Here is the input.
Amino acid sequence: MRRRTPPPPAPLPQRDGVDPVRVRLPFDGAWATVREYLVARLTGAGPGVVEAMVDAGQVVGADGRAVAPDAPYEPGMFVWFQRELPDEVVVPFPVEVVHRDAHIVVADKPHFLATTPRGTHVTQTALARLRHELDLPSLTAAHRLDRLTAGLVLFTVRPEERGAYQTLFRDRQVRKEYEAVAPYDPSLALPRTVRSRIVKERGVPAAREVEGEPNAVTRVELAEHRGGLGRYRLVPETGQTHQLRVHLNALGVPILGDPLYPEVTAPVPPGDFRRPLQLLARRLEFTDPVTGAEHTFVSGRTLRAWSSPQRWAGEEP
Here is the structure.
């Protein structure tokens, strides 16, 4: 069994808080040159784009030197290049810093902002913004929130400590509490613990519940209700994709502003921030694995459908 070799440090700088792309050449393959492999691998770049990058010296090795167009293929070799940053609509809401010390940053993420670069969301992410705003190029995310969900996200300052904080989430040693606004159903008996098996297939927007051993567990409580709406307190024991959204939908009270549940709706135009998903990561509690400190963090955000129902309903500008 081949031991995993840690990658060398990136020889290229970040751009707008975004790391250069790192590619490792497979140990098995019949490519004659590095260029030939990259053309085969990076098919989404478009015709001639990869060839032009290599020819222009924009693909470099661990020593920072340009990879020659005829450089032979070397199994296990690392190469880097700067990605072409997409044109993104600016998410016009700040990322609030709740806590910062030598080890962690806890941020209060707004709706519509992705946690980390992915797909078409690259610079408009909490990670890229915080790296730039706090001058912390080594900042990394210990976990993620959906782009449409607002609230608390934990970031790590030192790369060598990231694993310790990620382990907290993996081993369910972080107590997470969410808040949601959804229709009020007087016949729905709460509190209750929802258990089901959720699967999320690649390329399919919505997750679904299936028969089988439960892999998703959520405690659901009704905090209060008024005007046909309920404010729900959600305490997940697991972290399946879209778990809270799927579970409330299954109870017959889908979260307001959800574009996937109970049915997938057409995408809103870029820049339309009027109806955010009414889901908030409200609270994080954990014992710091590095310092031993007991942490409790609370989001300062509110859900618009509850705090300003007329504004949410479109009755006020």
